[in-house]
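Extended Data, record Protein FAM57A isoform X2
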Amino acid sequence: MSLLLASTVGSLGVAVGSVAVLEPGDKISFRRGACLSALGFIFFLSLFDFLNHMALRTRTGSRIRKKYHLTSPDVLEISNKVVSAVQAALSCVTGSIVCMWSCTRSFLHASHFMSEAYAWFGASYFFYDIWSMYRVHASISEHKKDQKSDAGHIVNVRLYLKEQPVIVMHHLFIGSFGFLIIVYLRGGLGDCIFGFVYLMELSTPFVSMRGILSRLKMKSTQLYVTNGLIMIGTFFICRVAMFPYLCYLYSELVGLPYFEAIMALPRGCKISIAILLLPQMYWFVLMVLGAIKVFSLKTNKQQNGNTSLNSSCGNNKSIKRLNGKLHS
């Protein structure tokens, strides 16, 4: 456990130290970037394993698992969500630094090294997360004793890709093509826009918290409802409305009407926006439908409870009247 903790803290510390000496306008060399990617893999993998070790192999973890009746798949799922929230926090810190530096100087041309640095470091997360989500999926299958043979691993992979096609494609796109755009294919574009893209992760901690609360059997709590509302609000602002807002800022900058400015964008840029935006809209619709379902269930329970209470009160009154007649 100490080795995992040292690996987690050390990899992040070395990554921060390797870029702390740079000036804001510096570029990340391929050698430094490759080191950042390797450190990113070490960090996310070590953090995931450390959290699993804490939950599965320590007394404190055992007490927590017994208290909330957590299975091994539950633990893996919670660990995955915590790592996701940590990555989101790092992304938001990066986005804040980049926006404060670049957007206040030039919307289209000012750059900050943190944008490229985190593209190298953070790209590793998306490939790690594909593996981590598969670990959760495989653990659920093993827990249900659905797959036991070696062939079961192939079946698990197929089922995993069938059940999670959107998130897997999203991660592959961001980790590969998105990385290439920020580091190599930006065509002289500055980092302000990419800073906003990093800030899309602001909603992720609330998405992760929803998954964690669900595993802890806390769906009926006020905390779950409050977190869900915040999640939907931040998701809409940071992942759905952000792209139209950036297009508006661009139209104001170039002095063109809104839709003309969008049509004037390079084809690759428009395709990239569509690939990024469409999954966000899909997930947002799912979130809204889920929220409607939760509130509908709560409303039905309250109505059923009131009906039962009124029925009980009515029966009590009838019994009292009957007793009164018998005594008279």
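Summary. The first helix runs from residue 2 to 20.
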